[in-house]
Design brief:
138 residues, 6 strands, single chain
Length: 138
């Protein structure tokens, strides 16, 4: 049986050598993003993983991107998402996270859905890429 920590490691190890890691201005992290990060970051967040013989779970890969800065001086607007950059990074991530098989077919993960969320406190948006995760536990 693998744990939720093992599942996180599988996805981290898979992503660390992919173009998405070097495309972001920040880093690739497990569980949490660094406090007060103002960069583009990728964060792997485990949600669930059962202990059945055919383990199934859900994992998140979040891609954080600072908002656009529109206007100047006191009239700056930092509420608008950087749609183009979110789209570019999400496309890269989805391409390398779709239907992945590891450990001779014993581990699989694939994209379920990408959704966009706002983090208004720090003027950023992020794409939440929800993954299905499965492992053979025989």
């Amino acid at each position: 049986m693998i744990t939720i920590l093992d599942a996180t490691d599988y996805i981290y190890t898979w992503l660390k050598d992919k173009p998405i890691k070097t495309a972001v201005t920040g880093g690739l992290y497990k569980h949490k993003r660094p406090v007060n990060s103002s960069k583009e970051d990728v964060v792997i967040i485990p949600l669930t993983l059962d202990a059945d013989q055919l383990q199934e779970g859900i994992m998140n890969v979040n891609i954080h991107v600072p908002n656009l800065v529109l206007g100047s001086g006191a009239t700056q607007d930092k509420t608008q998402p950087d749609h183009a950059r979110l789209k570019q990074l999400t496309t890269m991530a989805v391409e390398v996270l779709t239907d992945i098989w590891l450990d001779d077919g014993q581990v699989n993960f694939s994209v379920l859905q990408p959704l966009m969320f706002e983090d208004a406190e720090i003027n950023q948006h992020y794409m939440n890429i929800r993954l299905s995760f499965g492992a053979v536990n025989l």
